Each structure stands twice: as structure tokens, then as C-alpha cells.
TrEMBL record:
Pfam families: Endonuclease_5 (PF04493). The gene is nfi. One of its GO terms (molecular function) is endonuclease activity. It is an enzyme of class 3 (hydrolase). This is Endonuclease V. Its EC number is 3.1.21.7.
DNA sequence: GCGACAG
DNA sequence: ATCTTGTCGC
């Protein structure tokens, strides 16, 4: 007998309600992250690369998530899915996953059914291992779904980094003390770098290679741009 | 106690 | 994240 809903896209029963529970869950789940693995070379895969993002309307207590699948080679949009729900957790630095993942899982599960297969890679807006407890949004989503994930953020959070060279592709280590937790990666010549980190089942080199491939025309990856536009539209539609 | 702080 | 007009430039 086949279950109607894939359990890999369901919220765990022990999903936290308080900050203390959330931190404790991160501490005991961080060991499940897999660093390294094989994903198809950027641009040569025959599968789909998925971008996820979330938008909020705190006035109406609404949250809208979007998951957009792009053809790994052409970057053309092949499938889209959205999910709307109630905001269930406040924004707390270090606990972003608990605010975004519920809606993201819903959208991702729907997208999987529409695609008819699992994505090659999921690109998240935020961090993976570059996190106070090495378990940011991208890593958490990866562990829950079992999918390869990466985190691409627009800000360095509290981490240190030297300014990368001026050209697209130039990068410098993102450091938490002496530990390298990710990379500051320049995706466009003379434009502010992005901050890339491993989510789950990928190497940092592949994470950066994919980010560059997806950010061919703009500073941000095409996956993130499409997902961002879609979740904003879904939020407006839900508000009206 | 003060400041910093992904989205 | 979100509140927000025009404006400079490709």
C-alpha cells in the first residue's frame, strides 16, 4: 500500500513550539547532516534544480512559500508550487528554519508530485552549515527531506570574510573564528558577493559551482529569483 | 549590560 | 522579511 503523502515532506511530530525546544532540536539533529556527495555537474544534469522562498504578511498572520523547479541544463521553469499558511514561529536569528520550513515542506511536497520525481538539488535563501550550531535552514531542510541542499544568503550574518576578488567566480572563506563555514562568492563582476554554504549531501565546491551556474544573468541565483517572485504573488493572492 | 543578528 | 517614489542606466 502506498501512502497518499510522501513522509519526507511532512513536518516531524516533535516540531518545536518554543525557542528552547528549537535550539535543543538543532543540537541533537545537527549530526545528521551529510557533508559531501555527488550531484550532477552544473548544466549537465537531466533533472531539476529547485528554488524555495517564503514571504510574510504579519498583519494577517500569513506566510506563503514557493518552490520552483528549473531544468538543470536550460534553467527554464518546468514546474511551480505554492503553499499558504499561518505564521507559526517568530523570526529569531539562528532559528529561521522553524519559521520557514512548515510552509516550504508543503510547497516542496506539492512540487514533487507535479514533477513526478525528486529534485537534483534544492537552493535555499539563507544558510546551511554557516550557522551558530552548524544547522541552518538549508541543512535542516536537507535532513528532513533527504535531498541535496545548499544555502545562499545575501548577508554574512555574524561571520568574518575578506573581500573576494572583483570578478565573477572570485571567492574568499567565510569564517567562524578559524573554522571555514562557507564562502563569500562573487556572482557578478564588481557586485556584492553572496554567502554560500553546504546544506546537505553536497561539497562546498559544488555548492558554489551551482550558484555560479544559476546566477549567470543576475547577482542572485535564478532559482531564488523565481521562487521569490512566486511566493510574493501567492501571498498577495491569499490576502485578497 | 551592550551590540550584533540568515529571512 | 517589510514599509516605499522616483530615478539613473543598460
Amino acid at each position: 500500500m502506498t501512502s497518499a503523502v510522501d513522509p519526507r515532506y511532512e513536518l516531524p511530530r516533535d516540531w518545536p513550539t518554543t525557542e528552547a525546544e528549537a535550539v535543543a532540536l538543532q543540537e541533537r539533529t545537527r549530526a545528521s547532516v551529510v557533508v559531501g556527495g555527488e550531484v550532477p555537474e552544473p548544466g549537465t544534469g537531466t533533472g531539476a534544480v529547485v528554488g524555495v522562498d517564503v514571504a510574510y504578511d504579519d498583519e494577517h498572520d500569513l506566510v506563503a512559500a514557493a518552490a520552483v523547479a528549473l531544468d538543470a541544463r536550460s534553467l527554464a521553469v518546468v514546474a511551480e508550487a505554492t503553499a499558504v499558511g499561518r505564521v507559526s514561529f517568530p523570526y529569531v536569528p539562528g532559528l529561521l528554519a522553524f519559521r520557514e520550513i512548515p510552509a516550504v515542506l508543503d510547497a516542496l511536497g506539492d512540487l514533487d508530485r507535479r514533477l513526478g520525481r525528486r529534485p537534483d538539488l534544492v537552493v535555499c535563501d539563507g544558510y546551511g552549515l554557516a550557522h551558530p550550531r552548524r544547522f541552518g535552514l538549508a541543512s535542516h531542510l536537507g535532513v528532513l527531506t533527504g535531498l541535496p541542499t545548499i544555502g545562499v544568503a545575501k548577508n554574512p550574518f555574524g561571520f568574518r570574510h575578506a573581500d573576494p576578488g572583483p570578478r565573477r567566480g572570485d571567492w574568499s572563506p567565510l569564517l567562524d573564528g578559524a573554522e571555514e563555514v562557507g564562502r563569500a562568492l562573487r556572482t557578478r563582476d564588481a557586485v556584492k558577493p553572496l554567502f554560500v554554504s553546504i546544506g546537505h549531501r553536497v561539497t562546498i565546491a559544488d555548492a558554489c559551482a551551482y550558484t555560479l551556474h544559476l546566477a549567470r544573468d543576475f547577482r542572485q541565483p535564478e532559482t531564488t529569483r523565481r521562487a521569490d517572485a512566486l511566493c510574493r504573488r501567492a501571498l498577495k493572492a491569499a490576502t485578497l
